[in-house]
Amino acid sequence: MNLTPELAAKFARIALGHVAHAYPHKADHVSNSAADTASHTELHPVFFGSFDWHSCVHGWWLLFRLRAAYPDLAGSIDPLAATTFTAEKLAVELAYLDRPNSGGFERPYGWAWLLALHGAAAGTEWGARLDPLARAFAARFAAFLPKATYPIRTGSHANTAFACVLAHDWATVHDPALAGQIAARVSGWYGSDRDAQAWEPDGDAFLSPVLCEALAMSRVLPGTEFTAWFDAFLPRAAARDPAALFTPAVPSDRSDGKIAHLDGLNFSRAWCWREIAAKLSPAHPLYTVAGSTAGAHIAASIDHVAGDYAGEHWLATFAFLALTSPSL
Fold first, then answer.
1. Among 280, 273, 182, 187, which Cα is nearest to 228's?
2. For 37-139, where are the E strands, in sequence order?
3. Which of 138, 152, 163, 130 is nearest to 64 (CA)?
4. In 10 A of CB 69, how many CB atoms?
5. 192 phi, psi to nearest 5 deg
6. Which of 148, 162, 192, 288 has its CA 20 to 30 A from that of 124?
7. What backbone torsions phi and psi does residue 99 show, to the nearest 5 degrees?
8. CA–CA dist 209, 57 (Å, integer)
9. How far, in Å, CA of 10 to CA of 25, rounded?
């Protein structure tokens, strides 16, 4: 299953319907005094929609990726981009990072998606305007990584492996020094991991800690070295063991924002499996298994990208990742 023009148009309609939709909203904001009462639309005049800041960022990433893949969609995307990504509004987003107690704002998930957005917008006037904000978040990564003694292995926003995948993809093109720093940190965190047990998913997961770790290692190790590491990390994968990694999650209530995460888990697992398989030789015993597993995960959730705002404000991004892998 891959992206089609019909799905691309659907995803564009979904994203355009939420990136400028201000409410409901979940803020990541520290108030520094009783007088600190500005609304999220004032604090974030660019990324105020999509229920939360990071979902708005990657909603725009999706729109720019769709625009690049299907230029006929530009007519519906460009007018909103022109009024959104102005120098004045982006200056407010940048100034927010200088506020007291803003160091942990959107770390690391939102940081990584902002870098990915900048990469997706490259070559457009909006990409150039995003450059100072991207450089500010790259600097945050560079300062944070030496302090991050331990990786965060959760299945949600704090996961360091997922953030490092997106940040490394961006940095490879835009900041080679940061790319090297990420590669060293990822290798240090995960390089000695063996025989992963994959006790997942948890009920709040939209990422697989095991597969995100493997994907991060695939980004920083040459092909043969990655294969050797992967075979030790998941030594029984060709036999579909651990079984949890090969079994799509089943959300019980898609109107519940946390439970709806499980549709995202299906898409992100499919993305990981396709990307990992692309790094392995077609002769590897996992190669075919990974492809069929990815397809099963996509099929389990593709009909639920829209329907309830709990998932609709973000799921199309992860569906796009799954459907367009391995060539991101």
1. 280
2. none
3. 130
4. 13
5. -100, 5
6. 162
7. -65, 150
8. 22
9. 23
Question: In this predicted structure, what is the pLDDT of residue 326?
Answer: 73
List the chain domain ranges: 5-29+36-324
**Phi and psi at residue 163, to the nearest 5°:** -60, -40
Question: Tokens standing for 255?
Answer: 């109107």
Each as own residue / partner, the long-range contacts of residues 174-180 (CB below 8 Å, 24 or more positions apart, any chain) are 174/115, 174/118, 174/119, 174/134, 174/138, 175/138, 177/142, 178/138, 178/141, 178/142
At 216-244, the pLDDT tens digits run 999 999 999 999 999 999 999 999 999 99
Mean pLDDT for the chain overall = 97
* Euclidean distance between CA atoms 118 and 113, whole angstroms: 9
Positive or negative, the Cα torsion across 86, 92, 93, 94? positive
- pTM (two decimals): 0.97
Which residues have a Cβ under 8 Å from the Cβ of 37 and sit 6 or more positions away? 31
Q: State how far Cα 25 lies from the chain centre.
A: 19
Nearest-angstrom CA–CA distance, 199 and 312:
27
How far apart CA 189 and CA 262 sit, in angstroms, is 26
Q: Which residues, including other chains, have CB under 8 Å from residue 239's CB and lie 6 or more apart?
A: none
Burial of 149 (0-12, 13-18, 19+ CB in 10 A): exposed
Q: What are phi and psi of 237, to 5 degrees?
A: -65, -35
**272 token code pair:** 């990981």
* CB atoms inside a 10 Å sphere around CB 296: 17
